[in-house]
Design a protein that fits this description.
Elements (H helix, E strand, L loop, with lengths): L19 E5 L4 E8 L2 E7 L20 E7 L5 H5 L6 E7 L5 H13 L7
Antiparallel strand pairs: 1-2, 2-3, 3-4, 4-5
The structure holds zinc ion (ZN).
């Protein structure tokens, strides 16, 4: 989907460097996107909302419900970086603990801020 027809407008974490946190308790669905410098941390729920954005994730088999990934996007956005066709994923972990969804995401965000997950 192009940026012009995106229904989320400027509050879209895919087309803009906009931090977004959506957690639906009733369905245990979550999508959390946090931009940190040259990286973006994404928590997503299987099946992936971001499937169309992360072509590289399609090739893998996931069994856990939640995935946390870190992508190197430079000064761009998820959308612009994915259009480069480069391998962007720098970190991946998954879990099944909905009650821990925000803490698990924040832990990875903090690790990126500290430089622990990148430059490996
Ligand atoms: Zn958008």
């Amino acid at each position: 989907m192009g940026i012009e027809e995106c229904p989320e407008g400027e509050q879209c974490p895919i087309h803009h460097r906009y931090d977004s946190e959506t957690v639906e308790v009733s369905t245990e669905w979550a999508r959390i996107v946090t931009y940190v410098g040259d990286y973006v941390v994404v928590t997503d729920t299987n099946p992936f909302v971001l499937r169309g954005v992360f072509g590289q994730l399609l090739a893998r088999e996931y069994t856990d419900r939640y995935d946390i990934t870190v992508h190197e996007i430079g000064e761009g956005t998820l959308s612009s970086a994915c259009n480069t066709g480069l391998e962007l994923m720098r970190f991946h972990e998954s879990h099944d603990d909905f009650s821990n969804i925000i803490d698990a995401h924040e832990l990875v965000v903090e690790a990126v801020k500290q430089g622990w997950l990148v430059n490996q």
